[in-house]
């Protein structure tokens, strides 16, 4: 009897629980839908976005290449005769002018030969003068005068020869500049054409760089360039193209371009060997509309941007132009003053509600 009573109570409470659950799920709003205040559907939240205020700006596509600073020319000073170095008058770093004496070789033998040649010349000249006088008095023949004249000319040429060889014992600077290398010391023996010094003509400093054939067609002599030196980080200096070489390297397809450093500011000292980074402006646009590259999306091969019109997005198909330094020129599709979304295209759609959280940076005038 007790067992039957216990079962009856269990069935009773189960029915009460089932009926209570049904009553909670049912309400004025219908099955499975909470009534007012019961957590029903809410208005969609605005998507936070960053925008850029589109304004006209200047754009330039640049290419940067590196190369060492070099003097306009480097001249090797070689010995023109063999001999022993008696004196060295310059050191590395000395500035010399054209014609300055840099070293002397032992010239004693050459001086002796020159003295002998001068003595022979004096005798030959005297003999030639006497022969002319005798010929005038019909005491000598034309053949004797011609022989004397020939001996005189040979003697004069010998003097010039030894004078030249004596000059070879004096090593002088062929150009003005800075001595960058000294390869001899006092007492050294040098041979003809042996290297003695190197002079750098630093009256003009240049950077010789190699530029792709795709870009060099946009470069011309006289065109300005920006130069950055590792020795002066964060500073820009100006230069200009001196010449564009007439041919490209057959293997690399790179064309040498020579850039001259313009006058440097006070306190800035550029030396040969410094590393320079040269930036060439290949294309430029003035007062064009541009947006950051991140603002551009692509759909079915067509670029587009999202424009925030108040708190609503609209999608615009645009036409692009020059791309440079993270900016893309927009030639059609937007107007100045519009707010273009700079990121998050995957989560955006036309007509979506947005909340502008900040500007990614003004697209105003600049390079």
List keywords for this structure.
alpha+beta, Elongation Factor Tu (Ef-tu), domain 3, Helix Hairpins, disordered C terminus, disordered N terminus, 41% strand, six-stranded antiparallel β-barrel, conserved putative lor/sdh protein from methanococcus maripaludis s2 fold, 367 residues
List the helices and strands and how they pair.
Blueprint lengths: L1 H24 L21 E7 L3 E22 L4 E6 L6 E2 L4 E5 L2 H29 L5 H27 L1 E3 L4 E6 L6 E2 L4 E18 H4 L7 E6 L6 E9 L9 E8 L13 E14 L1 E3 L4 E3 L2 E8 L2 E6 L1 E6 L2 E6 L6 E3 L12 E6 L8
Parallel strand pairs: 1-21
Antiparallel strand pairs: 1-20, 2-9, 2-13, 3-5, 3-8, 4-7, 5-6, 7-9, 9-12, 10-11, 10-13, 11-12, 14-19, 15-16, 16-17, 16-20, 18-19
Helix pairs in contact: 2-3
Tally of DSSP β-strands: 21
Number of helices: 4
Which spans have pLDDT < 50 for at least 5 consecutive residues? 1-39, 363-367
Give the amount of beta strand, in percent.
35-45%
Name of the CATH architecture of the domain at 63-71 and 205-284: Beta Barrel
Describe the largest sheet: 6 strands, mixed
**The first-level CATH class name of the domain at 63-71 and 205-284:** Mainly Beta
Q: Name the CATH homologous superfamily of the domain at 63-71 and 205-284.
A: Efflux pump adaptor protein, beta barrel domain
Mean pLDDT: 85
- Helical content stands at 10-25%
